[in-house]
Fold this sequence. Notes:
- There is one protein chain.
- The chain contains 14 helices and eleven strands.
- Strand 6, helix 5 and strand 7 form a beta-alpha-beta unit.
- It has helices spanning 17-22, 46-53, 84-90, 110-123, 138-151, 172-177, 182-196, 213-221, 231-237, 259-262, 267-291, 317-320, 328-331, 337-345; strands spanning 8-9, 26-30, 58-64, 75-77, 98-100, 129-133, 157-161, 203-207, 226-228, 306-310, 313-316.
- The strands form three sheets. The protein has a seven-stranded parallel beta sheet with strand order 1-2-3-6-7-8-9, covered by helices on one side. A two-stranded antiparallel sheet has the order 4-5. It has a two-stranded antiparallel sheet with strand order 10-11.
- Helix 5 (138-151) runs parallel beside helix 7 (182-196) and helix 8 crosses helix 11.
- The longest helix is centred in the C-terminal third of the chain and has 25 residues, at 267-291.
- By secondary structure, it is of the alpha/beta class.
- The protein has one domain (8-345): Alpha-Beta Barrel (TIM Barrel).
Amino acid sequence: MKIGRFSHNAGEGGISPYHLEYGGDLVWQIGAGYFGCRNADGSFNRVLFKEKANQDVVKMIEIKLSQGAKPGHGGILPAVKLTQEIAEIRQVSMGQDVVSPPVHSAFSTPLELLEFVARLRELSTGKPIGFKLCIGRKSEFLAICKAMLETGITPDFITVDGGEGGTGAAPIELTNSVGTPLRDGLIFVHNALIGTGFREQIRLIASGKVMSAFHMLRLLALGADTINSARAMMFALGCIQARHCNQDTCPTGITTQNPTRYRALDITDKSVRVANYQTSMIKNLLELVAVAGLNSPSELQPWHINRRIDGTKIANYAELYPCIADRCLISDLKLSETWRHDWQRAISSAW
Length: 351
């Protein structure tokens, strides 16, 4: 982060001393385990959150509802991987598996989620608060939109994680079969916010197997304001997708606390490689924007991207992924049967 001057998401494991020592813009992710801001019983601790959220290195706070690699599923840090250092960062006890529940205890409905957003914004003295999710049942996201309309509370950003997102620590069936792919999820969320009149107020972050400048270009054209890249950064770090992340036997030393294995990870060398990769990605993105005749990535539109449909038939993204009309969901204007059905099923007081 510090070398390349780019931001970094801490993941749900909490803020480490290394984030504070080396600097860089940090997005602090708060998962259902509330690591770093939890009570002994695993519930949310507002005092600890306030203390850490107001550190200068923390620029945004992201509530993790779900992730593309395993939507609807919690996580486990096996006891074999738990060191004293990690236990102190996460505020957990040694000698046992560290469980991240599949659902939050601080809220259980869309209305309560937005109240939690408002609470975190107040405790962090106005820092941007958002949430991350992988789209599943569309009516459940539309329920959040209805809750925004009812409360007037909106997140500053929403991170849309694609079902193709990956981690070697996720069950293979969930990784391969559960969750909406990123392009479909992003287009849906983009349209849902247009249809409810919130699109200009909320930034969209897209995440899911983004590994090239064209991948970034494509997502920006479809409505993303910012792009997260995880898998590609892992590749730059030396990941070979051995899928031993949860077993403490990672052959490249990246996801292991075993000293004989993590000696393979040369921090001095790898940090430069990751920074170089990010710099090259941005350079290549700007070159693609320039050859499209544009002055800025913000000028990208769906019609700038073409896709072969069949044989010689070509269509652009504007034709393939049409946008719905502004505020049409709240005015019931020109709604397709699919949108009407999902909107009617959405309930702000329940999931």
